[in-house]
Amino acid sequence: MRRTHRIAASGTLAIVLSLPLVLPAASAQAATPAPAVTTAARDVQLTLPRPTGPHAVGRSTLDLVDTHRPDPWVPAAGPRRLMVSVFYPARPHTGAPATYMSTEEAALLLQRRAPGAGIPPATLSGTRSWARTGARPAPGRFPLVVLSPGFTLPRTTLTGLAEDLASRGYVVALVNHTYEDSGTTFPDGSTLTCAICGGNLPPGGWVAVNESRATDVSFVIDQLTSRHSPWPYHRTIDRNRIGMAGHSVGGSAAASAMAVDRRVRAGVDMDGTFDVVPPAAGVGERPFLLLGTESAHAPGKDTSWDQAWADLGGWKRWLTVAGADHFNFNDLPALASQLGLPLPGETIAPERAAAITRAYVGAFFDLQLKGIPQLLLDNPSRAYPEVTFQHP
Question: Shortest CA distance to 315 belongs to which of 359, 283, 341?
């Protein structure tokens, strides 16, 4: 079986982005220095793709503390503490431009992903996104979608998808899972790094990671939908329409979260091997989308997907994207391309992969959480010939 979140713990922005995550963790410890970027590339203004929906996008940042749960990876740290970026449909021309990530977060991500490439942290942290902090919310009530990033990756690497969903009329909670990523900066100025990376998985391994993420997600949903929510615009959330999507282990965790929290009505796994067996039995009749690379997730290439397909009892689709790499479901390939870093493992343009991800994930939630029919999910589309419907 090919595993698709096993070498996310090490590598380079240039090289790891180009290689599917198909090797065991033990084989992934040696990082190859990335090619150095030119001076002109270092000076480039990195930019995320523009959101496709009709709404402007606002963003709030929450520091949430679960006082009923000690941190599972560093108990001495005290209660579980999570940083969450909440994207939401906003009124146009309100608020101020939101930053992509802190400079310290950028430095730690580059240290892990692109050692020796010579990319200044400010170049990455200064990536232009489209959300605005302090923006006034648009009128109405909207479904909630929770996003969970890949292992070792900060939550910000799913910003492009989060902004696009918010522009289409969703509140999106982008969750960092503390001590599971390269580094997350908290409001007090502290930046917490990964405690379980580099072969330091806890007892229970990937199953424990999935279970912890499922608990994180339920807590975040509690916080955002509570009458006493710390998010001032919580009344814009329709508590009866909640979904979840994730990349890599975050995608596996979407099924785990659905298994323990019935409020999550629909889920998406973007190229993540399922770690819990049976992986999707707890999902029951709720809808689920499998969206992955053709190289690693066509039938028979990751048996956890074959088993999940058999277990899923409700509406389901299994889609693969020809030419895509494991990382094409987040922001990193598009940013690497703008820096001129080579991406030899993929044959699809990063911008094209981002458009496909946005189109199909957005269509899935439009159908399942808004009840809007989606021809895109019924049959192969001439607009997206790279996408194959498995088990039609």
Answer: 283
